């Protein structure tokens, strides 16, 4: 789904969003931000903690479980299809740009890149973020085996992933989120939406119309009332705070943009069928060819025996 915002300011930054970590949390962030037309890159060093699993049996949607290689391929395929760039590199450090506009992200092997937002989606070690907060509040010291050690403070981020550092978000599955892969993916979705809502506020969306969700509906749900743009205009205006501070021209642009986004969420029956077939075909790319051929032979044999 596109943000449909032609008035978004031009930027000289390389990306809108840099995600550090290509596991369930990081890919989930990227799916949401890229679908909002935010230029998103995911740095994946190929050492996600999920790769320590022998086999995953509790990830929703896989009744018999799923091997890690297949799940990893599906996650990266989904992020790429949504519009993310995936870079196989390790992020060594992140720092504020000299003009304080965004971040400079240093990779281990590639050239540095700039971004408006950085999302940390790695479970281990936040060393690459050291210095961003100035007073080192994001790290805590504790004693282990008689030695003092520093670790990233898992309580540093707010529940929505935002942090005291403007533009820095934490999607790592810490604390109450837990460490299950499915929970990490949910955490990533939550933080991705937090980033999008931050962008919408920058674009001028006042509360509560800055809130965001991403789902598709059948256009048969659009009755005569809600097929009328004026009804949506009234709905939008009814939610505006009295002190929104927007000029008439900017308010009208945001309102129409949001209505366009709402209408784009409704799909015809033909479009639903087209997307359903496309989705299943893409799933086939992650299934072993021999298994597909064996299933096809079984289907053919069943049809022959039943005379169909």
Keywords:
single chain, 308 residues, alpha/beta, FAD/NAD(P)-binding domain, 3 domains, seven-stranded mixed β-sheet, two-stranded antiparallel sheet, 7 helices, Thioredoxin reductase-like protein, Ferredoxin-NADP_redctase_2
Helix content estimate: 25-40%
Q: At the first level of CATH, what is the class of the largest domain?
A: Alpha Beta
Count of helical stretches? 7
CATH topology of the largest domain: FAD/NAD(P)-binding domain
How would you name the CATH homologous superfamily of the largest domain?
A: FAD/NAD(P)-binding domain
CATH arch. level architecture of the largest domain: 3-Layer(bba) Sandwich
Broad structural category = alpha/beta
Mean pLDDT: 91
Question: What is the rounded Rg?
Answer: 22 Å
Report the span from N to C terminus: 41 Å
The global form is: flat
Protein name: Thioredoxin reductase-like protein
Keywords: Flavoprotein, Oxidoreductase
InterPro entries: FAD/NAD-bd_sf, Ferredoxin-NADP_redctase_2
Organism: Natrialba asiatica (strain ATCC 700177 / DSM 12278 / JCM 9576 / FERM P-10747 / NBRC 102637 / 172P1)
Descriptive report:
- Strand 1, helix 1 (24-35) and strand 2 (40-43) form a beta-alpha-beta unit.
- The model has no long low-confidence stretch (mean pLDDT 91).
- It is built from seven helices and eleven strands.
- It has three domains: 15-202, FAD/NAD(P)-binding domain; 217-267, no CATH class; 269-306.
- It has helices at residues 24-35, 68-82, 181-202, 229-239, 248-264, 269-284, 289-306, and strands at residues 15-20, 40-43, 85-87, 91-96, 103-107, 113-120, 139-144, 147-152, 168-170, 217-218, 266-267.
- Helix 1 packs parallel to helix 2 (68-82).
- Strands 1, 2, 3, 4, 5, 6 and 9 form a seven-stranded mixed beta sheet that branches.
- It has 308 residues and is an alpha/beta fold.
